[in-house]
User: Which sequence fits this backbone?
């Protein structure tokens, strides 16, 4: 039987069937599929082959859809997948793409809503940890794809007159992220991607900087005062204000001035900044 | 026989994949050309684009996309086209290709190459879209025959004739994927050689070869293996009909070492040379009227 409901209805119907997570029978009977083509008419949209029924042929596309989405999300969220295990991760993906189907020409940003989505789930084991881990993994994808910019050279740093540092501002490279977490998620990810020992999964504040150097993404843990100073600098405070703001807080153990120099030296060596902006 | 745009026969290339980045940058292997998946290099300032710039400085590069969605009833995504155009310019892409398919509607992207119903309505619709896209891109695009797993009862055209009519009327090129012809012929029970006979020779700017997965009841176009003998046979046949056309080997899953993938692409050269010895090049008259002659 020939059925031609027109191109647009065929496409809306087929997409609704592909995105539906039930059986093929349930998919053609779903509200979205029926909004394009009635369940009765649906049986004659696709021709059977010698070996497969029309619904079995449609099912080939349906099966591949979720596998593709899972593959994309597991590339960006290897830590979360490791924590949840293959089955739970797959079930999470099914629910995620129902709410956030891809709307872009690229799969690279499919997972952009995942940390926010995880918050809405109430059957996730160690949900707060999962959310923090996803937040870290999303940040890392952003650092991976950020625009490239050459870091400050030693010559540019030396060219700044000593008296100008206090009012100067340091501009981070675009491929830079700094964050505070409620769990040791960066260490956990180190267990997954570098086979480091896994931390105990318990509430614990941690601080981290991630950046891209020579097109490789790195991340380091920061001590809390270093995090305070680096985030003050990254937010555009002058070097003087950032240092005063950090040093006038009470830290235990106290921060020695020598630490400041060590941190600065490391951050410069890591290429975290692209420019020193001098006050006019 | 040359294509009507004078696009050169680039020889035998492979798809550039991230697992081979180090090898390519460090060894600069003697390969004729690369094809890249356009979308992997858009919206990123990271390593992929950095690698691509270096590859494009050494080798001819062709852009191959999967999100043009040329047959969709959604509006054309000009933001995507703008980025595609900029990328093509950045790396001096020799040409740009995508697939005869649709990938989503209602703003969604399923990231699959979904089959078209081959109807008059779909033909008119796609012709208009191709024209608009080519006007915007200021160059012809080439469309590839996708592997398909189902056929619509609404279709009134065989796929090969639909492609011939579409590309003639929209004035665009063809990327003939010989493996896809084989896969679809297996899945739908048509004669793959008769399919190739219908393809207008002077519109074919490139050919694809790949391995697939035979599930018994159907074949999946997985690009996960060596090219099978029947596909090589079909490639010989296509070469006899089309002459020297830029040939590219696709390998996207279980990707082996660079040299293995490149070696598979170079097999195409042997088949071509054997065919060329058998017959004076392109002086083939197999009694089949070719479109575009
Ligand atoms: Fe292909």
Assistant:
């Amino acid at each position: 039987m020939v059925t031609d409901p027109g191109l647009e209805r065929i496409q809306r119907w087929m997409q609704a069937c592909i995105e539906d997570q039930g059986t093929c029978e349930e998919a053609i009977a779903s509200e979205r599929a029926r909004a394009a083509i009635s369940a009765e008419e649906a049986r004659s949209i696709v021709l059977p082959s010698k070996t497969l029924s029309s619904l079995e042929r449609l099912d080939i596309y349906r099966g591949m859809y979720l596998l593709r989405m899972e593959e994309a999300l597991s590339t960006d969220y290897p830590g979360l997948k490791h924590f949840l295990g293959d089955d739970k991760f797959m079930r999470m993906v099914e629910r995620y793409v129902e709410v956030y189907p891809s709307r872009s020409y690229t799969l690279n940003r499919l997972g952009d809503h995942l940390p926010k989505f995880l918050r809405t789930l109430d059957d996730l084991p160690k949900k707060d940890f999962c959310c923090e881990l996803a937040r870290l993994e999303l940040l890392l994808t952003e650092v991976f794809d950020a625009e490239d910019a050459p870091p400050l050279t030693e010559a540019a740093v030396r060219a700044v007159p000593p008296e100008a540092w206090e009012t100067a501002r340091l501009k981070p490279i675009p491929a830079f992220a700094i964050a505070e977490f409620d769990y040791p998620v960066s260490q956990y990810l180190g267990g997954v991607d570098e086979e480091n020992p896994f931390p105990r999964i318990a509430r614990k504040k941690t601080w981290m900087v991630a950046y891209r150097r020579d097109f490789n993404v790195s991340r380091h843990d920061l001590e809390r005062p270093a995090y305070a100073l680096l985030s003050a600098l990254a937010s555009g405070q002058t070097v003087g204000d950032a240092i005063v703001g950090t040093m006038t807080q009470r830290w235990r153990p106290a921060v020695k001035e020598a630490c400041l120099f060590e941190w600065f030296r490391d951050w410069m060596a890591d290429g975290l900044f692209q420019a020193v902006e001098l006050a006019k | 026989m040359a294509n009507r745009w004078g696009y050169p026969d680039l020889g035998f290339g492979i798809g550039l994949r991230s697992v081979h980045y180090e090898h390519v940058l460090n060894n600069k292997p003697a390969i004729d050309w690369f094809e890249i998946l356009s979308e992997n290099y858009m919206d990123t300032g990271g390593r992929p684009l950095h690698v691509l710039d270096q590859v494009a400085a050494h080798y001819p590069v062709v852009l191959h996309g999967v999100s043009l969605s040329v047959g969709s009833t959604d509006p054309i995504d000009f933001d995507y086209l703008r980025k595609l155009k900029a990328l093509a310019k950045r790396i001096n892409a020799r040409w740009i290709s995508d697939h005869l398919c649709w990938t989503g509607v209602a703003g969604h992207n399923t990231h699959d190459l979904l089959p078209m119903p081959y109807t008059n309505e779909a033909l008119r619709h796609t012709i208009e879209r191709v024209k608009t896209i080519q006007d915007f891109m200021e160059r012809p695009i080439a469309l590839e025959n996708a592997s398909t797993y189902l056929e619509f009862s609404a279709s009134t055209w065989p796929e090969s004739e639909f492609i011939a009519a579409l590309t003639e009327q929209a004035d665009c090129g063809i990327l003939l994927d010989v493996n896809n012809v084989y896969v679809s012929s297996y899945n739908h029970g048509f004669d793959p050689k008769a399919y190739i006979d219908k393809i207008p020779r002077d519109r074919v700017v490139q050919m694809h070869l790949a391995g697939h997965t035979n599930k018994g009841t159907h074949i999946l176009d997985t690009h996960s293996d060596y090219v099978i003998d029947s596909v090589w046979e079909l490639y010989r046949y296509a070469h006899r009909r089309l002459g020297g056309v830029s040939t590219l080997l696709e390998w996207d899953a279980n990707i082996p070492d660079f040299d293995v993938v490149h070696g598979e692409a170079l097999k195409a050269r042997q088949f071509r040379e054997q065919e060329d010895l058998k017959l004076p090049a392109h002086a083939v008259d197999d009694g089949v009227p070719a479109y575009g002659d």
